[in-house]
Write a structure and sequence with these properties.
Layout (H helix, E strand, L loop, with lengths): L5 H23 L3 H54 L8
Length: 93
């Protein structure tokens, strides 16, 4: 991979600064109390999304663990069935 040169980092920093300024300006055009309320609303929304994502991750982990348990049950049933039927006869061909 190519390393970024100093001039590339300067351009990236300038772009980041420009985007940061636009973000600041988007709140600066609002009255102070409205800007703070909007910021609180957005943080609350993002916090709710984070909570939903965490719950979804927990759900996936539980399903994977449940799948492991069911797979082991199936394997045990197959072993029990094979042991109960005894060795398989060798047939003439």
């Amino acid at each position: 991979m190519e390393e970024t040169t100093g001039s590339d980092r300067g351009v990236v920093n300038e772009l980041c600064d420009a985007l940061r300024y636009l973000g600041d300006a988007s709140y600066a055009i609002l009255p102070k109390d409205v800007a703070h309320n909007l910021g609180d609303l957005k943080k609350s929304f993002l916090s709710t999304i984070r909570t939903l994502i965490d719950k979804d991750i927990e759900w996936v982990d539980a399903r994977v663990a449940g799948g492991d348990r069911v797979r082991e049950e199936w394997q045990q049933k197959c072993r029990n069935k094979a042991e109960a039927s005894g060795p398989e006869p060798v047939g003439d061909m």
